[in-house]
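Allow me, if you will, to draw on your knowledge of protein folds for a short while. Thank you for your consideration; the sequence and its tokens are set out here:
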Amino acid sequence: MLNQEVYAITKQLNDMSELKDLIAQAGAQMEKTVEHLEEALARVRAGKANIKILDGIMVEYYGSLVPLTQVGTVTVPDAKSIVITPWEKGIIRDIERAIINSPLGITPENNGEVVRLGIPPLTEDRRRELVKQVKADTETAKVSIRNARRDTNELIKKSIKADNTPEDVAKDAEADVQKLHDRYIKRVDELFAAKEKEIMTV
């Protein structure tokens, strides 16, 4: 009798451990989604100088493509300009070409020493377009977070059937997944609100 009780307790602890792992995996997936969104939003030009808009621009350097930020010093002397000082003057034209060929939409100025980017003010229409783009990015992130919740809940249900996990343990696990979901959806909403404000502030 005692052995049966010990077995039952051990099994329940194992079930709980498995469910905790599932919840942790869901949390990690949701966190990754939010980090990806943060990176995407940082690249959206909001009318103010921000070196993050250079992320993703690659420069040819000794036959290899390397990130622009790894071939020189990037500074923001004021709210309307970015200055790139190449570590080697010989690649200044390569930096200029990489910026021109990028989707940035800014024409660089090259004085032979540095590459200067003047950040043009955004029109009202362009601001609204950017807000739509940001909204689409945040909606994609929300879908990913909801999918993580759905997939995890399905795995919890399978665990109940396969391992005879007690229903109250499974319900607690689903409640924890919902809390995670709500927390990350709130973070996405906060990121959108902050970026929208940044874009629309003249």
In short: The first strand starts at residue 58 and ends at 61. The chain has two domains: 11-43+124-200, 51-118.
